[in-house]
Amino acid sequence: MSLFTHLLACLFGMGSWVSINGLWVELPLIVPQIPEGWYLPSYLSILIQMANVGPLFITLMHRFRPGALNETAAIYVIISLGSIATFLLGFFWKETLVVAGAPRSVALLVLTFFLAVVDCTSSVTFLPFMMHLKPQYLTTYFIGEGVSGLLPALVALIQGVGVVHCKNSTHLLNQTFTTFSNAVVVELQAQYQPANFSAEVFFFFLSAMMLVCLVAFLLLNYHPSVAREHPTKRYTNGVKEPCQKGRMCSAQRSMIDPYRPAKQRRKSSFGTGVYSWWQVFYIFAILSWVNALTNTALPSVQSYSCMPYGNNAYHLSATLAAVSNPMACFIALFVPIRSLVFMGTLTVVGSAVGAYIMGMAVLSPCPLLVNDTSGGAVMVLAWIFFILSLSYVKVIIGLILRDEGHSALVWCGAVVQLGSLLGAITMFPLVSVYDLFTSGDPCNTKCP
Predict the structure, then answer these.
(1) In the chain, is it the N or the C terminus that has fewer CB atoms within a 10 Å radius of its CB?
(2) CA gap 212, 147 in Å, rounded
């Protein structure tokens, strides 16, 4: 395998969600300077789910007009649009227009919608494109996809986004309603520290990352050393070309498990027919469930689950969870366990850890062990294992579906987006409408 091709696959995967992930981590710096305030995350959630019109269109084209859509050209358009949108955000994110008598961040919301279309559509275009390379490079692509969350988080840490210091604050409190005597109350107040560099610089950095992704994609298509890594030329715009008579294509050979009988009766019409329809449903159900948890459900309550344990616990859990994603992909590169039983077991264990995290978020601002140092450590470890286990499951499912052909990877991307959509639809009313969760104050949480 070519190390150069591995690097390009990683950089290509990094462009899949780097812009939206970057926008999320920059929220503490953006929110105080726009009229929407902390309603912005709710608006972003809605815009991201509306952007699923992109992957829906691609999936329907593959289903009803196979070969009509030029997959490579679509990827060029997607990456270029992402580069332009992030670049324009650096200039216009603070600009407002009066809508219905109130100032609104129209430019920020419109450009965010375009970024969301780019990132959502990448799930059903980038992943199927990896059929042009050997199966081993798909794992490297997933590593890059994990880095798309890690890299903006690390840059935001260097920027100093969300760093809180507790400082003494005094105010007067009336002792009675009948006298003018006042009491001076001293309490700690959370104060955000100024950033080391502006949000504009951060958005230009995201635009540069999208350009790096574009260059990587160009080299994956045209560099001579990458061409030698193509297992076959059978796929043109996602349509499989027939192999020469009497010869087995190399991609077909890669689909064959060395422990699987050479002549095995087809169990279904899905892909190579290795899996029955019940097994296919099982795989896609797990894929949808895992992405609902990791992409929308649990991230929406991360601050509620961690902030009661302190600011350090929150930053550690966010950063180390971001590290856990590419780490899981790296493990899968060397230890790819494709057992469906193991996959289900790991999903159940990871979901149980996720249930603990969700339970602590519901109990916020007074979760278990809130007054104990071990409480923060347990929460950080819970986030690490949760992301590590379920990210590994996602990679293994990707490898399984890669062996089932191009169409299977298209449906893989579609189900990823469907799971994320279901998670967002479930959590949005609980967080933003019914106020089921209460934030913990990192400086003044008082629990019995």
Answers:
(1) C
(2) 13
